[in-house]
Amino acid sequence: YLMKKRFLLWLRFWFWIDFLGVFLSLTLTITYLVWGNYASEHLQNLWSNLAVEIAGVWISVRIIDFLLQRSKSFRKSRFQTLDNLNFFYRKVQDIIIFSTLHEADVQVLGKEVVYFDKRWGNRKKQFYKDEKEQIDLLMIEMNNIYQFIKSQQDKTDPDVDFKNRLKEKAYSFSEKLEVLRLNIWEETNPDN
Question: Is the pLDDT of residue 174 over 90?
């Protein structure tokens, strides 16, 4: 499925550029090698220069697109990671606000912790060293909060001590998340 999707995307956006770039440069190169000796020196120079220029333009376009896509992926990955951490925080806030522990809430938090762990391995390369350290600390806190909530899941009405401790943990998490958010925005800086 992924291969088909990539092929259709290539067909839609890159087919004509690749076709013209490769086809024209190869055609001009091959015809130059086969019939170039029969042409005047001026035509030989024009012929070979045109083949090299078309190939150079095609390669340049592909390199520039690769760099732009990489930058876009870099930014998107960083902001998606922030969104995932923010989703976890909002779910914990929901538990605090509504003062109930439903099985579904605990499952969603558990899935979010597992999902984040799985995605973090792929996204880690998009972050700088200090951001990685901050996210690792947030992951530890995510696990601690999840385990703390899970330990109380059998109780239908959590006690006040539980709510206060959860508020403290959520507040600590939100402070670290805000520092990370500022750090990522500073490094990514979409305004410049």
Answer: yes
